[in-house]
Structure formats: structure tokens, C-alpha cells
Specification:
It is elongated, with a radius of gyration of 20 Å. It is α+β, with helices and mostly antiparallel strands.
């Protein structure tokens, strides 16, 4: 399994102690030590089990948090937005720890968004090598034909040198004005489903992510969150190492 590099700035920012920008400043100013040695390189690799201190004190790790959130349309998947637009953190509210979203949903999309402060868990779910499925319900304009569905399953050039080939795709319903599709992906290309459907002449009108790996949206109300079983989440990636 491929695991994203554990750099000092990344590890420090994921403990819940500080933001990524604050972590850069702490490291550059010589306030951070790793195994007793000052390290001023933010991208220095962090060996497993390394002892990291800030101002001589062990950087306390926050208790691991795992949350499923029903993201509403109209908010950005980022911590802060330079245009002062509403973010997912505004909608999520205070969860008692600094958490980050696992993957993204674009501004106009809805559905399940996982939040955690467990870097290994987030890396496991987003690493393309693990082929973690994400299922979406896409409402597209017009009558999506069987031929278009066949082309989608075979793979479509969506631009930027990228090919989208869903793990599965099927029609849920058609009414002559629009078609509802269920599409499952195993990668997270930028705005992939919107680009995929548009390439087939069927712009997306509404997009809802129904599941991410074993985690399902279910009946979670829009804008609400629920805690996930921490033991299950840790076991999910630990048993694959």
C-alpha cells in the first residue's frame, strides 16, 4: 500500500495543535525538535515513532476523531476562503478538535464528507492505490441513452489528459427531462463526475455522494453529522499494512 509521505509540517499540523501555516512558522523559527534535534526543514521526513517536541514540550496528540457529515450545497471544502464564502467548517460547527476533510466535494455538490484528525486513516481512504469506492447519485439533463451509458463504462476522455472509467454506472430513473444515474468511482479526480457527464453531453444538475468506502450517508439529515466507530476506522487501515 502506498502511503503519503509523513513530513514534519504535515504531522505537526494534524495533531490538532496548530494549522499548517502555524506549523511552518514554528519549524522555521527553530522551535521544533525531532528526537532531540532541532529541525528547520518543514518537509523533513518523520520516521515512525519519532518524538516531536515544540518549545521542549511533547506535541500532544488530540484524541482521534472520525465524523460523517452531510455536506449541503453552497459551501466550500476548505478551512478558510479568501472570498469569504461559506465553508464546510461553518456548516460542521465545533467538534472539539482540529479535523480535516478526507477528500473533497465541490461547492455545488452534496453528500457524505468524512472528517478526521487521523492522518493515516485519511491517507488510506484517499490513496488511489487502495481503490476505495465512492458512490454518487447524479441527476443529469436530458434522456441519458443506453449508448452514453455504455461509453461511460468503457471510459471517457474528460480533458487535461485524464480518462474517467467508473467502477460501475447505471440508470436509476428517466423522466424525459432528466436522468438519475448511480456512478461509483475509485479515484478522486477534480470534479470528475461533472466533467464525465458533460463530456457525454449531459450536464449535472444535482450531485450527491451516497457513500465513501464502507461509510454510507443513509438517513443522516442535511447539514448534520454523526460520529463513526473509531475502532472500526483504525482497523480499516491497520489490517491493510
Amino acid at each position: 500500500m502506498m502511503i503519503r509521505s509523513r513530513t514534519l509540517v504535515r504531522v505537526l499540523s494534524k495533531t490538532g495543535r496548530c494549522s499548517r501555516t502555524e506549523a511552518f512558522d514554528l519549524i522555521r523559527s527553530g522551535r521544533v525538535e525531532m528526537d532531540g534535534h532541532i529541525v528547520k526543514e518543514p518537509n523533513a521526513p518523520v520516521p515512525s515513532g519519532a518524538r516531536i517536541t515544540v518549545d521542549g514540550k511533547v506535541s500532544a496528540k488530540a484524541a482521534k476523531v472520525y465524523i460523517a457529515f452531510h455536506k449541503p450545497a453552497g459551501c466550500i471544502t476548505t478551512c478558510k476562503d479568501e472570498k469569504s464564502r461559506k465553508t464546510v467548517y461553518d456548516a460542521l460547527g465545533d467538534v472539539g478538535s482540529r479535523v480535516f476533510p478526507v477528500g473533497r466535494l465541490d461547492r455545488d455538490s452534496e453528500g457524505i464528507l468524512i472528517f478526521t484528525n487521523d492522518t493515516a486513516f485519511g491517507d488510506f481512504l484517499t490513496d488511489p492505490a487502495n481503490k476505495i469506492p465512492r458512490s454518487y447519485e447524479a441527476t443529469v439533463s436530458g434522456l441519458f441513452s443506453d449508448d452514453a451509458l455504455r461509453r461511460m463504462r468503457l471510459g471517457v476522455d474528460i480533458g487535461r489528459g485524464e480518462i474517467s472509467r467508473p467502477r460501475s454506472a447505471k440508470v436509476i430513473s428517466r423522466n424525459g427531462v432528466s436522468t438519475v444515474l448511480e456512478i461509483t468511482l475509485t479515484e478522486g479526480k477534480n470534479r470528475e463526475i461533472r466533467r464525465l457527464c458533460e463530456a457525454l453531453g449531459a450536464p449535472v444538475k444535482r450531485l450527491v455522494r451516497k457513500s465513501f468506502g464502507p461509510f454510507r450517508l443513509g438517513g443522516l439529515p442535511l447539514g448534520k453529522r454523526r460520529e463513526l466507530d473509531g475502532s472500526f476506522c483504525v482497523d480499516l487501515y491497520s489490517r491493510r499494512r
